[in-house]
């Protein structure tokens, strides 16, 4: 029986466990990346491990999230990250060089390598055949220190693509179709592996758009084969030597097959407030729009923006629409300027933003009250744009551009036939905004620069024998990390200050939660299914930890967030009977008697609702390593107890 591409890369990198689906495995990590919203905490954790220099083949620190410098906090964090990177062997991508996933795809990603990043959209690297996963900052810190990255051996789903996309139908429509079929929790515990003749017609940027938004499925990662298209992309980047051919064996066996005929697809949009709330443009209709934003790590490549420039050339943005465009990297920005496409965007009335995440994380360009905004981004969670009642639709760059001209949601196929389209054979190579680390000889003399906003991260204590605490919050299904720990220009600068940022924890759901949790001292949260979907932000575990949260009891968890909870010693408990969710109310007093012994023995954990006088069964699925982490109060404590291993 042959192997899938996923299994081939895992087999080549497995250092702990066996390739048995559903069991825990440890992988050797070749590359890591961080971004500044999560990076400060990741590097504080790396420093706490006492490792002098990273052990990976390549680690890169990017500045792309907190680039709005309205106070000293962001600039201080950037200075700290730059100095840590220089001291510890990490390459530093300076502010203005671009979005981490776009730049990493262009300049550093290699087929067949493993990559983890402290950003949930790290699977973008799957577009060139990497096994690339989003992870919490602590997991990335461990990998930089030479430790394995642990995941559950995934199921592999074959997304078999046939046919070819019609004019003005794009890669964004492909992944929106996959989301429509599988939902935002359909990828949990799975890898999406793309195969079939349809793959041949997709460029690397198009493939990367699809793997990027695979994060919205809850998937461990997504991956395309490395083929002649990959070789051409790497050659254009002056990196042809990094190319190796990679694909699944002809007789590979998949756990599930989803077939999509690309020729049948039409322009789609994800409607508010979930990436899987997908409809055709025709079904939604010609709704009036207020704003269009083009960019993000999903759709900010040279290919995307050349299409946008073609549509906007000689036109003017509708007077009722604000159009903002952010190139994904300095390379894209520079090449757009040199070929004249940037001038076409400016002439049309677009507002050109810096090469950064920007509006995608609520960092500027928030829409007007109840405004309808079309965005080429990957998430449209409620309030993520910075406007709580903003109506965010996720669309392709082609749909976004034509709609910016007409003032209403418009099917780009009204433009007629697509003109001949040729990508450059060679890209501008200028890495002058990437600073290499100091040599091992120079590193000891490098000073790490810390600003006053950088505070120590909270560390848990070993799990007590029993827990008694009240339910300070009860929430529903599909709670995102944006609900738990919001982003935006007001909150993101506090990412290196857990005491300060904790004041906004769950503010989207209940503004009184931080105050009540602090007053309670210790508490428990109850949630629905797919709790913690979305961003990999570790702060969604660190802030509740700081506020005294001891356990989360849910119907089910998203992969990265569950691991972040375990890494920080917070119990992620799952109802044995999901109907028991309805039996617990906010304000109930709960007890977890003999919880430590139950975890040690691997038995079910009984939750007593003292207020109602009932008992509820929960489970906590843990590997032996995970069990040790929970008992010791998190990964750092566990690592110290085990001599740094």
Describe the structure.
- With 645 residues, this protein is α/β, with parallel strands linked by helices.
- The chain is built from 21 helices and 27 strands.
- α20 packs across α21.
- The longest helix is centred in the N-terminal third of the chain and has 17 residues, at 72-88.
- The model has no long low-confidence stretch (mean pLDDT 95).
* Average pLDDT number: 95
User: Over the alpha carbons, how many angstroms does the gyration radius reach?
Assistant: 24 Å
Low-confidence stretches: none
Please report which band the strand proportion falls in: under 5%, 5-15%, 15-25%, 25-35%, 35-45% or over 45%. 15-25%
In order across it, which strands form the biggest sheet? 21-22-23-24-27-26-25
Number of helical stretches of at least 4 residues: 21
Q: Characterize the overall form.
A: globular
User: Biggest sheet, open or closed, and with what strands and sense?
Assistant: 7 strands, mixed, barrel
Please provide the count of β strands.
27
Which range best describes the helical content: under 10%, 10-25%, 25-40%, 40-55%, 55-70% or over 70%? 25-40%
Structural class by helix and strand composition? alpha/beta
Q: Note the gap between the termini.
A: 35 Å
């Amino acid at each position: 029986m042959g192997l899938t591409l996923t299994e081939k890369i895992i087999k080549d990198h497995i250092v702990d466990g066996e390739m048995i689906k559903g069991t825990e495995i440890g992988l050797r990590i070749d590359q890591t990346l961080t971004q500044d919203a999560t990076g400060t905490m990741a590097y504080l954790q790396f420093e706490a491990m006492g490792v002098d220099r990273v052990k990976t083949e390549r680690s890169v620190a990017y500045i792309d999230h907190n680039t709005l410098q309205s106070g000293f906090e962001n600039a201080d964090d950037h200075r700290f990250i730059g100095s840590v990177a220089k001291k510890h062997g990490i390459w530093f991508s300076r502010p203005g060089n671009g979005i981490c996933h776009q730049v990493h795809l262009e300049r550093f990603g290699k087929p067949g390598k493993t990559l983890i990043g402290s950003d949930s959209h790290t699977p973008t690297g799957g577009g060139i055949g990497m096994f690339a996963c989003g992870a919490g900052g602590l997991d990335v810190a461990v990998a930089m220190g030479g430790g394995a990255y642990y995941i559950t051996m995934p199921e592999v789903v074959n997304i078999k693509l046939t046919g070819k996309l019609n004019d003005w139908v794009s890669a964004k429509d492909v992944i929106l179709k996959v989301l429509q079929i599988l939902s935002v929790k359909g990828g949990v515990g799975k890898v999406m592996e793309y195969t079939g003749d349809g793959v041949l017609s997709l460029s690397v940027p198009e493939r990367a758009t699809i793997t990027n938004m695979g994060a919205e499925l809850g998937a461990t990662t997504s991956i395309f084969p490395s083929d002649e298209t990959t070789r051409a992309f790497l050659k254009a980047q002056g990196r042809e030597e990094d190319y190796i051919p990679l694909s699944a064996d002809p007789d590979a066996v998949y756990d599930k097959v989803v077939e999509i005929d690309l020729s049948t697809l039409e322009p789609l949009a994800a409607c508010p407030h979930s990436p899987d709330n997908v409809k055709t443009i025709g079904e939604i209709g010609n709704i009036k729009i207020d704003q269009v934003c083009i960019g993000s790590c999903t759709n900010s490549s040279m290919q995307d923006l050349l299409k946008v420039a073609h549509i906007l050339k000689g036109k003017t943005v509708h007077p009722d629409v604000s159009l903002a465009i952010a190139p994904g990297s300095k390379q894209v920005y520079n090449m757009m300027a040199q070929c004249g496409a940037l001038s076409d965007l400016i002439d049309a009335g677009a507002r050109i933003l810096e090469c950064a995440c920007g509006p995608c994380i609520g960092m500027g360009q928030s829409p007007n009250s109840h405004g309808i905004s079309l965005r080429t981004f990957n998430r449209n969670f409620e309030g993520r744009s910075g406007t709580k009642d903003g109506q965010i639709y996720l669309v392709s760059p082609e749909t976004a551009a034509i709609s910016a001209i007409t003032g209403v949601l418009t099917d780009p196929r009204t433009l007629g036939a697509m003109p001949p389209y040729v990508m450059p054979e060679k890209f501008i190579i200028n890495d002058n905004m990437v600073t290499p680390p100091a040599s091992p000889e120079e590193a000891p003399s490098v000073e790490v620069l810390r600003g006053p906003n950088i505070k120590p991260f909270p560390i848990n204590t070993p799990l007590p024998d029993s827990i008694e605490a009240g339910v300070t919050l009860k929430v529903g299904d599909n709670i995102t990390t944006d609900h738990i720990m919001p982003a935006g220009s007001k909150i993101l600068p506090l990412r290196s200050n857990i005491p300060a940022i904790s004041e906004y924890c769950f503010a989207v759901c209940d503004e009184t939660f931080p105050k009540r949790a602090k007053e309670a001292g210790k508490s428990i949260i109850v949630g629905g299914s797919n709790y913690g979907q979305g961003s990999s932000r570790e702060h969604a575990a660190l802030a509740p930890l700081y506020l005294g949260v001891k356990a989360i009891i849910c119907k089910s968890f998203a992969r990265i967030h569950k691991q972040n909870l375990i890494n920080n010693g917070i119990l992620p408990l799952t109802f044995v009977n999901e109907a028991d969710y309805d039996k617990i109310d906010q304000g109930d007093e709960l007890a977890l008697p003999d919880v430590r012994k139950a975890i040690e023995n691997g038995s079910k954990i009984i939750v007593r609702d003292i207020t109602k006088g009932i008992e509820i069964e929960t489970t906590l699925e843990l590997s032996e390593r995970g069990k040790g982490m929970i008992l010791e109060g998190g990964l750092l404590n566990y690592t110290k107890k085990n001599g740094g291993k």
